[in-house]
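for the writeup, i need someone to sanity check this before i put it in the appendix. the sequnce is what the collaborator sent (i think, or maybe the updated version? ugh). structure was predicted straight from it, no edits. if anything looks off just tell me and ill rerun, i have time this weekend
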Amino acid sequence: MDAYDEGSNARHGPDASSRPAPPAQRGAPVESAAPDVSPGPPEPDVSPGPPERVASPAPPGSYPAGEPRTGIAALSPRYQVGVALALAVVAIGVCVHVGMTFLHVAPANTVTRAHGKAVDDWIYPEFEQNWKLFAPNPLQQNISIQVRAGIRGPDGMTLTTGWYDLSAEDGRAIDGNLLPSHTQQNELRRAWDFFVATHDGENRPVGLRGSLSESYLRRIMVLRLDRDGAVRAATGSSGVIERVQVRSRTSNVPPPEWSREKVSMTPSYRELPWWRVPQDEARGGVR
């Protein structure tokens, strides 16, 4: 049988293909079947070797063998659980504090009416807020806090000083200061607001915090008088503050020139009774 017979499936050598030759090559000489390939550089002799291993990707969360673990991952499982619990407690505390602060400054609602005491117990006195959401109330008055003192001199005589405008002193310290202190901006103002909120129009305490506000305001007055040298100015030497009296001077902020609003520019005063200074505060307050 002819080797080129299309019905033949016999192989013609170890490298011969079992598929029949295409029609164009049937009956052609064997030499013409080979393609005309120009000689090129010899291929490198590659000897068979062991198969190359391909590194598989590391599973998520694993670390290379030579790289040490850092952060929480370096802790033992027991300590990791402890850290997770601590972070959860801190997160819960922050959420509770933010929620309480929001309820404190928000307008009255069902929650604050039902749990107002719990909110106040959380906020006062450390986290007190003096602003309200959705109801801004800008100040339209200038309030100055003034104080005078009764000082006993070395001769045993008691002298009364003039009025010291402590708010004006704070204003001069703040004016032109890029970084004024919190004390200069808020201490005196917040102490007076605290007193007004816990006393009626006759300067009588309302509630249990009235005496606390008096003590707080009195101590600030004594400290400021001692710092400003009021004792030395009154007696010419050392002396002792026996009593202090505080008053507020309130005047309306003048309206702009283009406004037709008419307001009284006459200041009004609110004088508090004389407060006797305890002996432990007499020489500059409690330190």
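Residues 13-18, 27-35 have pLDDT under 50 and may be disordered. The two ends are 125 Å apart (CA to CA).
thx in advance!!
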